[in-house]
Amino acid sequence: MKRNIIILCAVWLVLSNCTSLTKSQVDSVKKYAETAEKFSDYPGKLITEYIDLQYGVYLLTTPLNTDIDKAPDAIKDRHALINKCKSDASAMDLSFRILKSYAANLKLLATTDYALDFDTNVQSLIVNMDTLIGTFNSITGKDLSKFGTLAYKAISFAGEKYIENERAIAIKAFVEKGNVLVCEMGKVASYEIENKIKNSWLSGLDGQLKANHLAIRKQILKDTQNYTLNISLIRQIDQDVIQLYDKIDYLNNLTVSLLKSIDNLCVAHTALNQNIKEKKKLDDILTEVKGFYSNIQELVTIHNSLKTN
């Protein structure tokens, strides 16, 4: 009897050791989750700044429209065009909202001291993620499976038990199921950014700005009698145009950086999924996760450069 107990304990220890994750593996999971959560905010910033830029380029020439009856309609039409841009970007925006929700759940799983906030935070996060996936499926015609129930059970079990092995089981299940989701979100976002934002929205925008700048300058200079009084106005317009060119450069740089980050979003998650299938001690955060993190630091730098210009 005693011998059997010893054997059972030995088997349990072996299985337990295989199931659990090393601290460095859990740290890699958490680092990925935190990075992905932060990353998911930047496409929204791109859309917001683009809309702001579009209004800036357009408003440069509104003084040229001297028809009192038509001017309000022109502004209304421009507003409708901007709303269409927002609508066209809805799939991309939704994909990043799903990613943010997924990353928030994964971060909780990889955080050992989150249990106190479980009741108030986790349930709403999971319900939100499933709702977003359902909306995404209806918009795109895809059939991504919802896994809020899995997430709730996994996080609940890990949180209540507070046991290393159960946490590892929960993380493995969540990451494995999430791999398809993350890579699919990346594909959708990459297509939208490449084709709609880079090749459509931003393409030729600097040429449009140049044409508008030339038109407004010509109009001012026609009034030769008041030319000396308009020097300060011309300078202000030129200054505004320079800032608009800066914003175009910023959006182009942010777009390129976003596309690079999206490529590594899936690469890092896939590497993470493979790595945590068995217990491994890492010297540092997983290489692919560090690469993804570096991409996001580049995004932060680009975004901050707009504030300092």
Q: Count the domains.
A: 1
What radius of gyration results from the CA coordinates?
26 Å
Q: Report strand %.
A: under 5%
The helix content, as a percent range, equals over 70%
**Assembly state (oligomeric):** single chain
Give a description of the structure.
By secondary structure, the chain is mainly α. It is built from eleven helices and no strands. The longest helix has 45 residues. The N and C termini lie far apart (77 Å). 30% of the residues are buried. The N terminus is likely disordered.
Name some characteristics of this structure.
single chain, about 300 residues, mainly alpha, elongated
Which secondary structure elements does this structure contain, and how are they paired or packed?
Elements: H1 2-19, H2 23-39, H3 42-59, H4 71-88, H5 90-109, H6 118-140, H7 148-161, H8 164-201, H9 205-222, H10 231-275, H11 287-308
Q: Concise description?
A:
This protein is mainly alpha-helical and 309 residues long. The protein has eleven helices and no strands.
